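can u do me a favor
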């Protein structure tokens, strides 16, 4: 797997594999470079992150609605968006070791970073994956795997307007797969060829765009705070004119300090009326907006927030990971926000007798109706705690002799490791409230 030279990344990657968060794709065949599979705990973590985003960006608001567009779209979409002609990276090859690089990421121009050999001239390499629709493999049947989810929203903007009662300003949110044939995928799931984006496009009146851009910058920073990401590990980077993508008038990166350095987690862009104007031009459909109150007609501007779901998984794993030295012991712990923890509670009978397993199973059944829990009766309770700490389970519930007398259990909290006595009937609400803290 990529990123093996970084000791902190090595530990995270090894934990991910060992505990079933993330595996290399097609591992039994030697692995497929830059593609990863999410295991039983990883799929829960990623889905919780996507749900957290959806709740914050879509469900919480009346001015944003959701969409799930197809990955395959008409090729004209990508001509209009500028991706066919301009979604390229500058590629160079080393004439000696044959390794391939993005020339804009090389420290010493013309010199191979791996062996010092001479590099070829720069070629522009289009990052879109191309395939064919139908039985013929000719130019008329070319389709692309989408390199961003955004275009699915733009081409449905009129459909959403016509089928809902939304009026500008309003937004459309979407979570879905995107594909880029990256020249240099890197750092585990940070940069891969198949990944998921969580994007929201907010349609506004021209002239109010800068104000909305500022609004979304602040809102997205608040979102990461609520997700529990440490403030000192986040920073914000406005793009200079030379860094802007072809569609953007202004851009702002939210960066996180990963174990391999500060890197982009999310981009916020003022895409102006570029996309809708281009789609109007290429499709021949009038995509202007008529404001019934002011009787004005205009092409909306778009403010975009674009976050990577996989990159957020790596962010929360890096942020949550800690190796703690305790008085007599040590532990590895993932300090996930309860909302995104894959398992919400471990449930243990203190011993495998005296009716304790039966009571623990009864609690398990009751809680499992609402969220994932894990029943464990093997080994000493201390070891069971450690196993749950390592996967970020926020609560461990132990059934003991007192439970049999008064229907209370001990609840041990992951981060503070403190224990309190709670009535069995109060367990659901206690955990439910913690999961929903932040909204
Ligand atoms: N629609 C705008 C857009 O796609 P981007 O900056 O190219 O903008 C947005 O991508 C986000 O998507 C990035 O901040 C990152 O989180 C994620 N992303 C982009 N390329 C990625 C890749 N190869 N692997 C994983 N995540 C990626």
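np, heres the sequence
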């Amino acid at each position: 797997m990529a990123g093996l030279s970084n000791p902190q990344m090595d530990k995270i990657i090894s934990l991910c594999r060992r505990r079933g968060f993330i595996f290399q794709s097609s591992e039994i065949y030697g692995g497929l470079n830059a593609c990863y599979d999410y295991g039983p705990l990883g799929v829960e973590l990623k889905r919780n992150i996507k749900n957290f985003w959806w709740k914050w960006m879509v469900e919480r608001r009346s001015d944003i609605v959701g969409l799930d567009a197809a990955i395959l779209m008409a090729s004209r979409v990508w001509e209009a968006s500028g991706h066919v002609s301009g979604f390229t990276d500058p590629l160079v090859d080393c004439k000696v070791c044959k390794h391939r690089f993005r020339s804009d990421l090389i420290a010493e121009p013309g010199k191979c970073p791996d062996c010092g050999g001479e590099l070829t001239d720069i070629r522009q390499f289009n990052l879109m994956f191309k395939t064919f629709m139908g039985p013929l493999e000719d130019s008329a049947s070319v389709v692309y795997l989408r390199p961003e989810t955004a275009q699915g929203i733009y081409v449905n903007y009129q459909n959403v307007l016509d089928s809902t009662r939304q009026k500008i300003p309003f937004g459309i949110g979407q979570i879905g797969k995107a594909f880029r044939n990256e020249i240099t995928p890197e750092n585990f799931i940070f940069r891969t060829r198949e990944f998921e984006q969580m994007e929201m496009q907010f349609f506004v009146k021209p002239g109010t765009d800068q104000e909305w851009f500022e609004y979304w910058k602040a809102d997205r920073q608040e979102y990461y705070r609520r997700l529990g990401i440490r403030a000192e590990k986040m920073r914000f980077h406005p793009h200079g004119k030379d860094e802007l993508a072809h569609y953007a008038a202004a851009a702002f990166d939210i960066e996180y300090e990963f174990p391999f350095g500060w890197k982009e987690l999310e981009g916020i862009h003022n895409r102006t009326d570029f996309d809708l104007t281009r789609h109007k031009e290429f499709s021949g459909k009038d995509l202007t907006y008529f404001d019934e109150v002011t009787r004005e007609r205009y092409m909306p501007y778009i403010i975009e927030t674009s976050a990577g779901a996989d990159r957020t998984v790596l962010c929360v794993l890096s942020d949550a990971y800690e190796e703690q030295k305790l008085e007599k012991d040590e532990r590895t712990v993932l300090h996930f926000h309860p909302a995104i923890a894959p398992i919400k509670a471990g449930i243990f009978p203190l011993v495998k007798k005296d009716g304790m397993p039966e009571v623990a199973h009864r609690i398990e059944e009751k809680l499992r109706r609402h969220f994932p829990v894990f029943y464990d009766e093997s080994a000493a309770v201390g070891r069971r705690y450690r196993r749950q700490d390592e996967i970020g389970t926020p609560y461990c519930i132990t059934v003991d002799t007192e439970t049999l007398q008064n229907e209370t259990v001990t609840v041990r909290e992951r981060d503070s490791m403190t224990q309190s006595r709670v009535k069995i009937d109060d367990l659901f609400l206690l955990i439910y409230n913690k999961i929903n803290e932040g909204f």
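The chain has two domains: 7-76+146-317, 343-435. hope that helps!!
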